[in-house]
Amino acid sequence: MEETDVVQKVEGPVPAIRSLIARSVELQEEGTKVEHELAELARTRTESTATLLSFASTTNQYSKQQTAMAEERTALTREQTRLSTRSTELANIRTELSRERSGLAGQRTDLAVHRTDLARQRNTLARERTDMAGLRTDLSQTRTTLAESRNTLAERRTRLSTQRTELARARTYLALVRTGLACLVLGISLFRYFGVSRWTVFDAVLAVGSVVVIGWGSRGYARASGRVKHLDALLSAP
């Protein structure tokens, strides 16, 4: 009886301990879950805080943009006011210009009438100019004919001048031939008069030089005569 009572006393608190242990495990698991949830909430709060900071930064940027847009709108309003004032001034200037244009239109009408009169005078002068142009054409034709005659006479004068030059050249060559003949006659006369002496060399040189001069003069004269005949043929041609 005593052992049975002891066993019952020992086994009596074991289920309670087990239940306590199980409860403690459940509480630990719930604590772990709560810690996880707290960590998740902290992470969510961090993300929310970052989102709020980003939203605040974006709101700040939008505020700055709105401020800049407000400043631009103010500047545009001022510019619009200035342009309106300028438009009014331009309208006044345009009105003045319209008045001046009206005055100029009257002057233009007067000038148009004057231009019509000048056009009539120009037509009259054009007819006179046409008549004078016809007269000028006739005079030009006459001048052309006279110029052709003058050119023909100039060519004839040029040929006559060339012929005169060739005749003068032929005369020069004839003078050389005459001089050579005179020197040749002198040399032969000296040789015949003095015979063979120490002056014979001089006589021979004089005679030979005279023959050379006569040959050169004769050749030049023949060439000049040919040119003169050629120029005579040209002058005789129509």
SSE layout and pairing:
Elements lengths: L1 H10 L2 H181 L5 H37 L2
Helix pairs in contact: 2-3
What report would you give on this structure?
The chain has 238 residues and is mainly α. It is built from three helices and no strands.
Shape: elongated
Mean pLDDT: 83
Number of strands: 0
Share of β-strand residues: under 5%
Could you spell the SSE succession in H and E letters? Answer: HHH
Indicate the low-confidence ranges by residue numbers.
Answer: 1-10
Count of helix runs = 3
Radius of gyration, taken over Cα atoms and rounded to an integer in Å = 71 Å
| Spatial gap, N to C terminus | 189 Å
Broad structural category = mainly alpha
Helix content: over 70%
Largest sheet: number of strands, sense, barrel closure: none
Concise description?
Residues 1-10 have low confidence and may be disordered. This protein has helices at residues 2-11, 14-194, 200-236. It is an all-alpha fold.
Question: Which features would summarize this protein structure in a list?
Answer:
single chain, 0% strand, 3 helices, 238 residues, mainly alpha
